[in-house]
Write a structure and sequence with these properties.
The complex is a heterodimer. Chain A is an alpha+beta fold. Chain A contains six helices and five strands; from the N terminus they run αβααβαβββαα. Helix content of chain A is 44%, strand content 18%. Chain A has a five-stranded mixed β-sheet. In chain A, helix 5 runs antiparallel to helix 6. Chain B is α+β, with helices and mostly antiparallel strands. In chain B, helix 5 packs antiparallel against helix 6 and helix 5 packs parallel to helix 9. The mean pLDDT of chain B is 87. The chains are: A alpha+beta, B alpha+beta.
């Protein structure tokens, strides 16, 4: 049943991606923006995951990342601005900041937004779908957050074994480095702005 | 619930034509995915009788708070239905109306004035329709019947959808206005006749100056385009058939970014419309504040037209 609606979901994802691009048009710190639909295998795995609590009664309706997108920005301070721009295009029904629960830990960080699928994204035929999804997901993060998250997802999250202490410490070190790099860039932006201001005051030209 | 009242509500439901009415979305708190009206609706639809009754009272109180002193009394009727696998909730507000009753008597007839009579046909009546399961992904959006939603008085226009329901139109003004401008640009590229392009251009100018801020593809087409190829192409440029009648608030800034024409109003009621790409070339703004517009070019066509708008 999920496979049968694949083309409609793909068209909806394409339209949502275009709406998101329009909403962020002119934003200089956008690294990339892409939407995809969940493949059949991932959908089935998620629908039947015994860890679901509560389990999905109607996964075709309830799984909210059947259409999902990532918006990757350069700097941590860009995230609120991009979120505000996206909110002018989409209704958010849920916003969660994913980060380690313990302050002394470093790990996956990202902002997850659950949004309503807007009417203009629904192609002809959508209304005839039984249990069409009402929502889609956007993951919003920096280049460094992504640099940790994506390889980690591939290496560790999908592995079926309990990782050793050594592996977990090395992953935490990569996450800490990414966290530190984000903060260093934010500090650097402030430093560069201060130097530009100073140069202007002194009437000096950088050229 | 009497059979007569049930029949009346069903008649009103059919007459409302909810599938063609504007869609709305609950403005939920994104931290908790909750909002008062949605929570009450779900308690009303799925709760035990005592809980459902409490939810209905909450909704009635909220309606009272959203209503200002200019409003007359109204009859609030929340109704829940079981449909296969789902529940459906319809909220009705019927405004009061002074009615006259003719009663035949032995001497002839008497006329009495009836108070506390509520109208099913008044254009002041309101309704809202929601359907779904008891799930976090359901009851997030619905349809509304509100003939006053386009009223130019904001208090009146926002009463039902925003102040009472805590909802907003399902297409955001930015997204809807960009979508409209994109469709106009797409059609503009397809048109070969100058008169057709001019009609399209006049329509774009007209909506920019329209006092009423709410539109849809269908209402734009009916209001600003004459029957013919331009209108057909424009409606075909709409993302889907279902979206044609979906209302959104017109946002001029978002529209202009995509339409990419700048419109200048000069003294003496002169309007100059120029593609953004010509500003600084064929069209120049002079003076310290850019308050003088200078335009020079070769006239390739001229025609008389009624004042735009």
């Amino acid at each position: 049943m999920y496979e049968a609606r694949g083309e409609l979901l793909k068209e909806a994802a394409r339209r949502i991606e275009q709406d998101a691009k329009d909403a962020l048009s002119g934003f200089a710190h956008l690294d990339r923006l892409a939407f995809r639909t969940k493949d059949v295998g991932s959908f089935l795995a998620k629908a039947n995951d015994p860890a679901n609590n509560p389990p999905y009664d109607h996964p075709l309706r309830e799984i909210e990342d059947q259409i999902g997108g990532r918006v990757i920005v350069y700097f941590k301070d860009d995230i609120p601005e991009v979120r505000a721009k996206l909110e002018r295009a989409f209704y958010f029904v849920e916003r969660s900041v994913r980060k380690p629960a313990n302050d002394a830990e470093f790990g996956y960080e990202s902002e997850h937004l659950i949004c309503m699928i807007p009417p203009q994204a629904k192609p002809d035929g959508w209304e005839g779908l039984e249990d069409a999804p009402a929502t889609f997901e956007i993951q919003l993060r920096t280049v460094f957050m992504h640099a940790y998250a994506q390889p980690q997802h591939s290496l560790a999250y999908k592995s079926k074994v309990v990782l050793s202490s050594e592996v977990r410490r090395r992953l935490a070190w990569i996450a800490a480095s990414a966290w530190g790099s984000d903060h260093s860039y934010n500090d650097l932006i402030a430093l560069i702005a201060a130097e530009v201001d100073e140069a202007k005051k002194e009437g000096l030209s950088r050229s | 619930l009497t059979a007569e009242l049930r029949a009346i509500l069903e008649e009103n439901y059919s007459a409302a034509g909810f599938s063609d009415q504007p869609g709305v979305v609950f403005l939920v708190d994104p931290k908790t995915r909750t909002c008062d009206v949605r929570d009450d609706l779900m308690r009303f639809a799925f709760g035990e009788p005592a809980s459902a009754k409490a939810a209905a009272l909450d909704l009635a109180q909220r309606l009272g708070l959203a209503t200002d002193r200019r409003s007359s009394i109204a009859l609030f009727v929340p109704a829940a239905y079981e449909v296969p696998g789902r529940r459906q909730v319809v909220l009705w507000v019927f405004p009061s109306e002074d009615a006259l009753q003719l009663q035949p008597t032995e001497e002839g007839a008497s006329i009495s004035v009836l108070k506390d009579v509520f109208s099913q046909k008044s254009r002041l009546r309101k309704a809202a329709h929601f359907m779904g399961r008891n799930s976090r992904t359901d009851f997030l959006q619905g349809k509304v019947l509100d003939y006053q939603a386009g009223d130019t008085t904001r208090e009146v226009a926002t009463f039902w959808i925003e102040r009472f329901l805590g909802c907003s139109l399902e297409i955001k003004d930015d997204a809807g206005s960009r979508m409209l401008a994109k469709a106009l640009r797409q059609v503009h590229k397809q048109l070969e006749e100058r008169a057709d392009r001019e009609q399209l251009h006049a329509a774009a100018l007209a909506i920019r100056h329209a006092p009423r801020g709410r539109t849809s593809f269908a209402s734009f087409a009916n209001q600003y385009l004459s029957d013919g190829p331009v209108k057909e192409l424009f409606l075909a440029a709409c993302p889907s058939r279902d979206v044609r009648s979906v209302s959104f608030d017109f946002n001029r800034v978002a529209f202009d970014k995509v339409w990419a024409y700048r419109v200048f109003e000069l003294k003496a009621g002169i309007y100059v419309s120029a593609p953004s790409s010509t500003i600084g070339r064929g069209v120049r703004l002079e003076g310290e504040g850019g308050e003088r517009l200078v335009c020079k070019g070769v006239v390739v066509d001229e025609r008389m037209r009624a004042r735009h708008g």
